[in-house]
């Protein structure tokens, strides 16, 4: 999730744990602790693919954060005066740190909760920015600064509201999963890898991607749709053109669970993460090889391409699609790249 959300979550958690000992300083410390795990973005692993794959790694691991919170609490108590007992202080620090990766694990990116074990958790029920989750936390943190006698209670209310919304996101995801599996059953697409994620800043409109060899199918479905049939659109997924796959490509494929597409753009061979973003706005696109003058491909360290800009003309269409208007799916992709499926496909 974004830094504002994580700071608000950390402050609210600190306020609730502190109880009657809560103060503005406690909220500020909780906000700082809530954003601390994301400081791993300052670590460079030498190339953009490694930076992407190893983000949300060691700094988001419960196996690291638990002992680190113990050390941090010990240092805090040793060098600064506090009214908290060591156990209270340790629990406050640990709660603020660990709720950060737990929340991240509900997004689509992937969070290595048990690093160094190769276990990446991505529930994919909430977008990385969702005001309906964040605003209640911001409101109660601000309100607690005005009504200081009720700080802990207000923080608890905000956490309850946001947690209920997070629970709703999981329920909504299950509804969409059932809808997708029902449509794909008894078709050639049954059993194919499926990726489902909410579209930006909501849990009503969902994006569905199905891998099918050199093709992938993409569709949108809203909880407000009258007709639950998803209008899938076929897009070319492409193939890797070189005989061998570089280690960085294998790393990216494993990280995305093979949800990537390969495309030649001019003299560059690019690989794009299909999970994050939607339609033409896929921000994680990397150049893995370039075409030499003799017609051979030369691979090197991957280079990340600049993210495409959002076209304002698509925003109203996206909003109408969220509200259940199923006549505008084709307006959200380029006609030359898309084709409608036949009944034998889906």
TrEMBL record:
GO MF terms held by the record: hydrolase activity
Bilayer-spanning residue ranges: 58-77, 89-109, 121-147, 154-176
Keywords: Hydrolase, Membrane, Transmembrane, Transmembrane helix
Pfam families, alphabetized: YdjM (PF04307)
InterPro entries the record matches: Transcription_regulator, YdjM-like
Descriptive protein name: Metal-dependent hydrolase
Organism of provenance: Photobacterium chitinilyticum
């Amino acid at each position: 999730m974004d830094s504002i959300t994580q700071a608000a979550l950390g402050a609210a958690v600190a306020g609730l744990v502190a109880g009657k000992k809560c103060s503005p300083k406690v909220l500020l410390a909780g906000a700082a602790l809530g954003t601390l795990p994301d400081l791993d973005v300052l670590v460079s692993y030498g190339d953009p693919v490694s930076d992407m794959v190893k983000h949300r790694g060691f700094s988001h691991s419960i196996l690291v954060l638990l002992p680190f919170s113990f050390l941090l609490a010990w240092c805090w108590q040793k060098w600064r005066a506090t009214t908290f007992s060591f156990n209270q202080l340790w629990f406050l620090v640990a709660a603020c740190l660990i709720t950060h990766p737990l929340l991240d694990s509900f997004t689509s990116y992937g969070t290595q909760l048990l690093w160094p074990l190769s276990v990446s958790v991505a529930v994919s029920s909430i977008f990385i920015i969702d005001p309906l989750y964040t605003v209640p936390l911001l409101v109660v943190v601000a309100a607690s600064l005005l009504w200081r006698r009720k700080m802990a209670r207000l923080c608890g209310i905000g956490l309850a509201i946001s947690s209920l919304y997070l629970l709703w996101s999981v329920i909504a995801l299950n509804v969409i999963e059932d809808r997708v599996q029902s449509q794909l059953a008894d078709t050639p697409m049954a059993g194919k890898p499926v990726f489902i994620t909410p579209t930006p800043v909501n849990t009503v409109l969902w994006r569905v991607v199905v891998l099918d060899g050199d093709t992938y199918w993409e569709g949108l479905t809203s909880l407000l749709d009258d007709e639950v049939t998803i209008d899938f659109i076929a897009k070319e997924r492409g193939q890797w053109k070189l005989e061998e796959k570089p280690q960085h490509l294998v790393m990216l494929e494993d990280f995305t669970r093979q949800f990537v597409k390969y495309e030649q753009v001019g003299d560059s061979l690019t690989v794009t993460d299909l999970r994050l973003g939607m339609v033409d706005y896929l921000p994680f696109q990397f150049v893995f090889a370039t075409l030499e003058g003799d017609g051979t491909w030369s691979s090197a360290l991957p280079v990340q391409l600049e993210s495409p800009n959002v076209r304002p003309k698509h925003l109203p269409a996206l909003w109408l699609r969220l509200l259940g208007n199923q006549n505008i799916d084709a307006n959200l992709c380029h006609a030359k790249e898309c084709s409608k499926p036949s009944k034998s496909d889906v």
